[in-house]
Design goal:
- It is a single chain.
- The protein is built from 10 helices and 17 strands.
- By secondary structure, the protein is an alpha+beta fold.
- The protein folds into 2 domains: about 260 residues, Aminopeptidase (3-Layer(aba) Sandwich); about 110 residues, Alpha-Beta Plaits (2-Layer Sandwich), CATH 3.30.70.360.
- The strands form 3 sheets. Strands 1, 2, 3, 6, 7, 8, 14, 15 and 16 form a 9-stranded mixed sheet that branches. The protein has a 5-stranded antiparallel sheet with strand order 10-11-12-9-13, with helices on one face.
- The longest helix is centred in the last third of the chain and has 21 residues.
- The model has no long low-confidence stretch (mean pLDDT about 95).
């Protein structure tokens, strides 16, 4: 059975350790120590050689006692967004907060702690279960770098579960979007703004004209979003701006729709910039792949049946966010996202209900048992 007091203390311990993206070494060493205490033999891969971080992803394998059960992988990331150093947990009315000077770190220590406790409970209960693979990744918050750079031959599971999304327990996310980041560089011509402005071509104004001609932004439709997230331009108030840069984030659950949006956006911006006497360059960076699993896929059904046993109201959902789960699916591992209750993430107002922490561990535990029973 899940030991709530032990789980709470472990969560508090995990979030107290500094774990910014690319510097998760202290967190990784703590987790590996806990895995060894469970009798496991954790391994660290070498993705930090590619990411420039201080450590790699942490892997472990739990040998089961039901040989024909599907092998399940449970994944959570070790890094947290800033400010993340010196987190002090405050308990108020059965809800966990930070003291307001840092994020809580429930994103994603609720996943890490719940996975560890579920495995510990399986061992203590002597429950029937199949093999279980554990993966704790680095640098998820800055582009899922740990998963992007991992060696997929390390994956030994049949189905995967990414414990990294908010929402009520029982919510299962089966689809997530493909993402493009488009880096746009608009080139004009510098001139003295007070003496010879007519000799220049203002890149800021060209960029503004192009952006103003976009037919829509924000939520394009129920499947698609479009955002201008960064804009940088200018070298001085007395200089006609020679260069402007901005970045477009576009994503959609419908890949064909996203490809068409990418092509039409580039064509529109190019036409506008060149008509104004400027030049434009595009650097299209393909982000995470799209994910869409059938609602009756065994991976989904396992988590659904486990949630129903626990009395959690099941809801199958899509998301506009991207996670490590997108890439795991892209590597051929059917992978669903299971809600953990994390709220107000990436802010100092982040919080987590204690009941959701305990309930997440129970959902993992029950999913593993359900897989063995089937």
């Amino acid at each position: 059975m899940i030991n709530e007091n032990r789980l709470l203390n472990e969560f508090i311990e995990l979030v107290s350790v500094p774990c910014p993206s690319k510097d998760e070494k202290a967190e990784a060493e703590l987790i590996m120590g806990k895995l060894r205490e469970l009798g496991l033999e954790p391994e660290m891969d070498d993705v930090h050689a590619k990411t420039g971080g201080t450590c790699g992803n942490v892997w472990a394998y739990v040998k089961g006692n039901v040989p024909d059960a599907p092998v399940l992988l449970f994944e959570a990331h070790m890094d947290s967004v800033a400010p993340t150093t010196g987190t002090k947990v405050v308990r108020k009315d059965d809800v966990l907060y930070s003291d307001g000077t840092t994020t809580l770190g429930g994103d994603d220590k609720v996943g890490v702690a719940s996975i560890l406790e579920a495995v510990r409970a399986l061992q203590e209960d002597g429950a029937a279960h199949g093999d279980v693979q554990l993966l704790f990744t680095v640098s998820e918050e800055i582009g899922c770098l740990g998963v992007v750079n991992l060696d997929k031959s390390w994956i030994k599971a049949d189905y995967g579960y990414c414990m990294d999304i908010g929402g009520d327990l029982g919510e299962i996310t089966y689809a997530a979007p493909k993402l493009y980041d488009i880096y746009v560089t608009v080139k004009g011509k510098a001139a003295h703004a007070g003496i010879a402005p007519e000799s220049g071509v203002n890149a800021i104004m060209l960029a503004a004209q192009a952006l103003s001609k976009l037919p829509a932004y924000g939520r394009i439709d129920e499947e698609t979003t479009f955002n201008i997230g960064l804009f940088n331009a200018g070298v001085g108030t007395n200089i006609v701006c020679p260069e402007a840069k901005f970045v477009i984030d576009m994503r959609s659950l419908n890949v064909a729709k996203l490809e068409a949006l990418k092509d039409s956006t580039i064509a529109l911006i190019r036409e506008t910039i060149e008509a104004g006497g400027g030049q434009v360059e595009f650097d299209v960076v393909e982000g995470c792949p799209a994910v869409e699993m059938a609602k009756d896929h065994p991976c989904i059904q396992l988590a659904q049946h486990a949630a129903e046993k626990l009395g959690y109201p099941v809801e199958l959902k899509t998301t506009g966010g991207c996670s490590d789960g997108n890439y795991l699916c892209g590597y051929g591992l059917p992978c669903a996202l299971l809600a953990t209750g994390m709220s107000n993430v990436h802010t100092t107002e982040e919080y987590l209900k204690e009941s959701d922490l305990y309930g997440t561990a129970r959902w993992i535990y029950e999913t593993i048992k359900t897989a063995a029973a089937k």
